# Entry
Amino acid sequence: MVSPILELTNINKSFGHVHANKNINLTINKGTIHGIIGENGAGKSTLMSIVFGLYQANSGTIKVNGKEINLRSPKDSIINGIGMVHQHFMLVENFTVLENIILGFEGELVFGKNLEKAKKDLKDLCDTYKLNIDLNSTISDLSVGFRQRVEILKSLYRGAEILILDEPTGVLTPQEVDELFKILRSLKEEGKTIVLITHKLIEIMDLTSEVSVMRQGEMVGHTKTENTNKEQLAEMMVGRSVLLRLDKSEVKAGGVLFSVKNLTVKDDLDVTRVKNVDLEIRSGEILGLAGVTGNGQTELLEALSGIRKVESGEIYLEGKKVSDSQNFLDPRELKDKGLAHVPEDRQRMGLVTDFKAYENLIFGYHDQQPFSKSSVLNHRDIISHSKKIMEEYDVRPQSPNLITSNFSGGNQQKIILSRELNENPKVLLVGQPTRGVDIGAIEFIHQRLIDMRDRGAAILLVSVELDEVLSLSDRIAVMFDGKIVGEKDNKNVTDRELGLLMAGVV
Amino acid sequence: MAPVDKSKIPWWVSNLIVPLVNLTLALLVSGLFIFIAGENPYEAVRLIIYGSFGYIEGFAYTLYYTTNFVFTGLAFAVAFHCRLFNIGGEGQAYIGGLGVFLVAINFSFLPVPIIWLLSIAGAVVFGAAWAFIPAYLQATRGSHVVITTIMFNFIAASLMVFLLVDVIRDTAQMGPHTVALPKEQWFPSFKDFAALLGIKIRYSPLNISFLLAIAASVFVWFLVWKTRWGYEMRAVGHNTQAAIYAGISPYKNIIIAMCISGGLAGLLGVNEILGVHHKIVAGFPAGYGFTGIAVALMGRNHPIGIFPAAFLFGILYQGGSEVTFDMPNITRYMFVAVQGVIILFSGALENLFRPQIESFFVNRLNIKASA
# Structure
């Protein structure tokens, strides 16, 4: 009854010295949801890019339905019934759903019969899989969850029998995730095969029937999902057992170190993104700010760190007003007063990726002793300082002279964290500390944040990962549409409750 | 072709082999031009080398041109590290020359070495001031410096013609130039030094400004890579968002970078006024400001690259005039075209063969490493 639809044998792929895929064997059975899990850089995306024809393997064979095929481009894959939904959607924002789907498959110069047929086919597909998409709506009006469905519909319309989803839940609310999972299940019912690439164990357990684990370019295990558990999978991924729940001491919060009163902030397009927000963070506690991306967290962090002007309201540091709409301290002055900021987007804001590692390790502190004396940089001290903190924070490789873009995402994040934490700040603002970071590094970063808290720092943690907010925070505030819609003690709150708050339902 | 891991490329492949390949291609294409024009390319190359190295005055001319290209190349490079495309070197040099002359003529009562220092400062201040306006507009209004600096070249040219005709012209004659500076203020020329050593050579415009060019190169290297200013300028250039995050003001750094850039371009005026003409003549920047862009691009915006690139253009300028002198079919414009081809290959088409060359070497080195 079980017949393999996709068989990979001895796939190898190298980029220069990096052996991204080593002798990969993988069999995916028809009509299953198959999870591929692994740390960042384990080679999951490379492998799937080979299956989708974006890369060519150095060696190995790919069989679809038992027939060996040669994939030279995504077009070959589509012909063979393989579709892929990328992490970043490939949609034209100002086109309608219909226009996006037929793009490249218009079929005729003047739209007419073909278009009508396409409309009918798409409607049928939508009904079969309960996608609930209006073909005439413009992409820019759709939420992220719907855009993802458009991508799925696009693949189905092009005849995909095997659908590869690369980290599909990264940008969704818990409710949207539920919807997506329903769709994926109904796809499976109809006999489609789904390959789910993820680093979230919970999704694997929830959705898949089989799971393959990758580690450092190798396939380290295949198993039926029912025969395994989260802890076992996590151990296979990192090659050692990890603590999924942090050892965290009881909160010993002191006085209020950082507070925000009635804060309103506008974005670059003059849209009000933060609306009358009040927050208080005490010494020795972590306040988690949960919320779906784009609900004002970014603007709030930027205002708190002095990057963005405050429209109205006040910000207080140790009881002293540091910013209001008239007077505000710039990021450097706030740093001098003991406020550190790990920005949400490390490559856009936290780092100059073309700089060498040592240049980034002093970024923002470069004008302080001993890094510079009367405007001349003191390279010897900078390098020895860099070596020291790279060792302390286990940044790999430990070469201060390497260009930052050559470090992996997790190590880039460690560069920022080591820089900001090393100053022993009183208040720490952290945005998405573990976005795109592998499990080993996540654990390390979380432990460092807890250490900071235990030393009496006031920490504001902004994260779209609910798990992260739940495991780190002492109190949790939820942001929706620029407002704080709820504040809960971590002890008596469930993901369900938070999810509803994040979606603006209550 | 799979992209090559950038970190695996040895520095000498990117910084030596690639420019050399581009240069060779440019010279091959140029040779073709000369062949089509009905002259022998080998002979032309021989004449270029003879003209620029073959006799002492020729070599001195080569170094004189090099001096000017170093100034304008460095000027472009400094702004470029802050990702500002300052193509106003021509105008900034012109106004810088005005600064040199005004200082020298007004402070002629001071001892000569002091006049020199003040004149150099005058060149820097005037050049910087001319760059300041586009910089200010870029920093506060977002008016793109490419547009404003090129317009400021025209404004500078018109302003100087106005001044040279109506305000500071030497009224004893009709040409658009000023009176000459007193002879004792002139920079010692290469000929003077040779004479001190008892060697008698003919005139060449090479003078001690060449040393100033070396000093300027060292200054730029130190500024960009060894100081906080350079660090902040580069941060703004590479990632403005990140710079703001780190408390580095893009506004301030755009203005600083442009002013330093303009000041360096102004130094061309020192070479031309104190060293060569000893007065302001209309149009003395003669396109050096523009060629400086190519010099900087070819030299990868690093003084160590700019110096040889400037030298190469010096050879072309000097050797080229030798060729046009000896080969009737080759006009002066032919050599402008040759320069154009070099700029095309080492500037605009810089990355044409880069991936192939880099992956070739990376693969070779891999084979060697695994063998």
Notes: The mean pLDDT of chain B is 91. The first helix of chain B runs from residue 11 to 36. The CA atoms of residues 70 and 310 of chain B lie 6 Å apart.
